Amino acid sequence: MTSTAMIEAAAARLKGHARLTPLLSSPFLNEIAGRRVLVKPECLQHTGSFKFRGAWSAVSALDPDTRRRGVIAFSSGNHAQGVALAARAHGAPAVIIMPEDAPRMKIDNTRALGAEVVLYDRKNGEDRDAIGRQHAETRGLTLIKPFDEPQVIAGQGTVGLEIAKQAAEQGVEAAEVLVCCGGGGLTSGVALALEAHALRMRARPVEPEGFDDVARSLSAGDIVSNAAPSGSICDAIVTPQPGEITFPILSRLCGPGLAVSDEEALRAMALAFSRLKIVLEPGGAVALAAALFRPDQIEGETVIAVATGGNVDAEMFQKAMASAE
Amino acid sequence: MTSTAMIEAAAARLKGHARLTPLLSSPFLNEIAGRRVLVKPECLQHTGSFKFRGAWSAVSALDPDTRRRGVIAFSSGNHAQGVALAARAHGAPAVIIMPEDAPRMKIDNTRALGAEVVLYDRKNGEDRDAIGRQHAETRGLTLIKPFDEPQVIAGQGTVGLEIAKQAAEQGVEAAEVLVCCGGGGLTSGVALALEAHALRMRARPVEPEGFDDVARSLSAGDIVSNAAPSGSICDAIVTPQPGEITFPILSRLCGPGLAVSDEEALRAMALAFSRLKIVLEPGGAVALAAALFRPDQIEGETVIAVATGGNVDAEMFQKAMASAE
């Protein structure tokens, strides 16, 4: 289990390596939301998403001999790039298992960050786990899971430590903290950090409508799954269900989940472009969308939205900008 | 004259009000440039550009009685928004004189930030200065010039203080610091800060090709003007000539100026989008463009580019993204 002490230890290992992202705001966003809005732009993190924090935390926590043999991850997206860069910086080999129909740019970026990319054919039913297991066993690689892994959760929790400190510097002690939520690694880490360092703040997961497994699991009191495996432009945060490790943390500490439409995510991207000058991907914009467009479901004078990632192509970004017209 | 002590005093007045922007980087940009590239994203500053710093410095330096009567500025762009927000935060009235054919959004934004916008008809030869003088005299307003004003230069110089400190934290002591340059307020402020705090760093102005009055003035050793008043998409940094106060500072401290094409500015915007997840306007991207596309004109292992602003509309941004395809 991830403890507060583990988050603080992760913060010490990340210092000087992860980027201390600022806390942004705009009077124009405050006006839309009807309350003060603060945004933590993790799109500015190395590799364009918060995933670098968890990856660094996990890789840096390995004992040197284990690390020297290398790490392996399954990901077609932000986790892949986070693990690739964190491993390279530690001089550790990284193998990333990706579907061969993943976007070319994501494959290229992951390779450019020094990882060995192993492609598998998901359409013809190649068994990703078997391929990964084979590489891991043959070469002694350590699997870095994307969210259901205590040291990954500890790394993501450093976002919560920074929010508590930076908000206090701006005079904010109480707030709801909205977090774009897939498997719950970031949300649970942030919730643990806030429990320890900002008693008057509460984390709440935000998901795409139709893929709100975490919100429904929280309200059912048990893990439930999404009906469909995919179908939202917020692909980075669509996961089948909350994690075995993350769910008990979310359940104990988080407020009710929120869900927004794809169109609202696009409008939030457009406002982040025009008012904050940051680039968000759809899945990285749902927390801001909820902060802006779900005022009646939020309590208090201040809302803090974690903008989790910015790995979006020009075509989708153009679609977002057009949504504001 | 702006002194180092004035910059440090401005930094103290700005503390907690101006945003401490991070220093960004990407291995992909390093590869293009052939050296380490660090980017200071002032697009993330309040109102979307560094201009807020100089405006805050100038407004906060006024004695309370003078400030209470209010301030006035001539600007159709970033300086207008910076002065409007800085004045509002001080409870001071702000009058901004803008051409009536300025982009609607800039006029609306400036008003939304609490300023009284006075429009004049520049096409029919209305005398902007006479209108401004009349308002200033009748109401006792203090003019905040955009660059040729010691307290404005001191405020912009805080960018240089932060660069010196943040680069040192990343182990960088020596670098050329490229600055998008209009009248030279930011460039001269940064140059003064570096002289005091980073002896192995040197500021260099970057301008759009055809509007390189500062570069040519530096090489002539005297102030020379641009041939045309406008005609670059980098409109935010097109000024007729360097300032009377800024030029002697630039001349004493800066390395040779650089110039880039509009197309290069657009390509730098596209790379800032894809690799740094920030939004730049063309005039705010010329320093990054020079860092990436003028490697032979730059010395040393590290180059630092100040990305000065991000106030760009969706149409121009789309054009930039298309330039990368």
H and E string of chain A: HHEHHEHEHEHEHEHEHHEHHEH
Helix/strand-derived category of chain A reads: alpha/beta
Please give the largest β-sheet of chain A. 5 strands, parallel
Q: Beta-strand percentage of chain A?
A: 5-15%
Oligomer: homodimer
What's the total helix number of chain A? Answer: 14
> What is the number of beta strands of chain A?
9
CATH architecture annotation name of the largest domain in chain A? 3-Layer(aba) Sandwich
CATH class of the largest domain in chain A: Alpha Beta
Rg from alpha-carbon coordinates of chain A: 18 Å
Largest interface: A-B, 33 and 33 residues
Instruction: Estimate the mean pLDDT confidence of chain A.
Output: 95
Please give the share of residues in helix of chain A.
Answer: 40-55%
N-to-C CA distance of chain A: 47 Å
State the CATH topology of the largest domain in chain A.
Rossmann fold
What characteristic shape of chain A results from the CA principal axes? globular
- Which ranges of chain A are low-confidence, i.e. pLDDT below 50, for 5 or more consecutive residues? none
Q: How many domains comprise the coordinates of chain A?
A: 2
Strand order of the largest sheet of chain A: 1-9-6-7-8
Would you write up a description of this structure?
Two copies of one chain form a homodimer. Chain A has 325 residues and is α/β, with parallel strands linked by helices. Chain A has two domains: 4-49 and 149-323, Rossmann fold; 52-143, 3-Layer(aba) Sandwich (Rossmann fold), CATH 3.40.50. The first copy, chain A, is 47% helix and 14% strand. Chain A has 14 helices and nine strands. In chain A, strands 1-9-6-7-8 form a five-stranded parallel sheet, sandwiched between helices. In chain A, strand 2 (71-74), helix 5 and strand 3 form a beta-alpha-beta unit. In chain A, helix 5 (78-89) runs parallel beside helix 6 (104-112). The model of chain A has no long low-confidence stretch (mean pLDDT 95). At the A-B interface, helix 12 and helix 14 of A face helix 12 and helix 14 of B.
